Amino acid sequence: MRIVFIGDSITDCGRDRDDEKSLGTGYVKVLSDKLHPLYPDTDLELINKGISGNELVDVLDRLQTDVIDLKPDAVVIMIGINNTLHRFSDDKEPDFVKFEADLISLFTRLKKAGIVVIFLEPFLLPAPDKRRMRKLFEEELKVIDRVAGEMADEFVPYDEMFQGLAESIPYTEYSEDGVHPTHRCSRLIANTAIKAIRKHLL
Questions:
Q1: What's the whole-number mean pLDDT along residues 43-58?
Q2: Cα angle 115-20-74, degrees, rounded to a multiple of 5
Q3: Which residue of 99, 129, 159, 161 has the lowest C-beta tally within 10 Å?
Q4: How far apart are the C-alpha atoms of 90 and 55, rounded to whole Å?
Q5: CA angle, residues 46, 145, 26, in degrees to nearest 5
Q6: What's the DSSP call for residue 36?
Q7: Is there a contact between 114 and 68 (Cβ–Cβ < 8 Å)?
Q8: Cβ atoms of residues 45 and 1 within 8 Å
Q9: Which residues sit opposite 24 in a β-bridge?
Q10: Residues 161-190: tens digit of each pLDDT
């Protein structure tokens, strides 16, 4: 079974783009290390196609070559945080109509290709310089949760979980900057995502 992981830096996590077998050091690698021992007799191939800095439109632009052409049985997607971050850094107004249309197009093309779609919700932890982004991010999450909740084969929510954890545990345990996961955070992402993936293992 072939599973492609696609997204931004949270998926990329330092992978060697010259090595198709490189999984980086983040949740994809943690998930691989957990999944293979659970299914020693299953031919599992995990491919990391994350690219740091990607927004939703970037994943959509490379969907054919980096996912569909590889003919995977399933794709795991985490994307969206940069759509919020870049609106602040570039001082641009968000376009949620286009964002929703792009998200629908993403799911439609993958479903048409017969690929199981597992969508991992992006998250934003309460680092001081990220708190001003919270309102915009929540508007984006409304679109993601509605579309992915309806169209994904599996939708794994993370934001509310991490917000809850940050009420009793310092957010820096999970992300020093509110966005990029610590190893502890990557383990938690992997442990949650693997439950969704296992439902579709051939």
A1: 97
A2: 15
A3: 129
A4: 13
A5: 30
A6: H
A7: no
A8: yes
A9: none
A10: 999 999 999 999 999 999 999 999 999 999
What is the C-alpha separation between 164 and 174, in angstroms, rounded?
12
Look at the block and give the residue holding tokens 């929703």: 100
pLDDT tens-digit series, residues 96-107: 999 999 999 999
Whether 1 contacts 202, CB under 8 Å: yes
Residue 49 has which token pair? 């196609």
Give how far the C-alpha of residue 97 lies from the chain's centroid of Cα atoms, to the nearest Å: 21
CB contact at 8 A, 141 and 101: no
For the record, the structure tokens of 178 come out as: 């509110």
* Tens-digit pLDDT profile for residues 119-162: 999 999 999 999 999 999 999 999 999 999 999 999 999 999 99
Give me 36's structure tokens: 């293979």
CA distances (Å), 189 to each of 29, 101, 186, 193, in order? 11, 27, 5, 6
**pLDDT higher than 80, residue 202:** no
Indicate the residue type of 21.
K
CB 142 within 8 A of CB 93: no
Long-range contacts of 97-101 (CB under 8 A, 24+ apart): 99/56, 99/140, 99/143, 100/143, 100/147
pTM over 0.85: yes
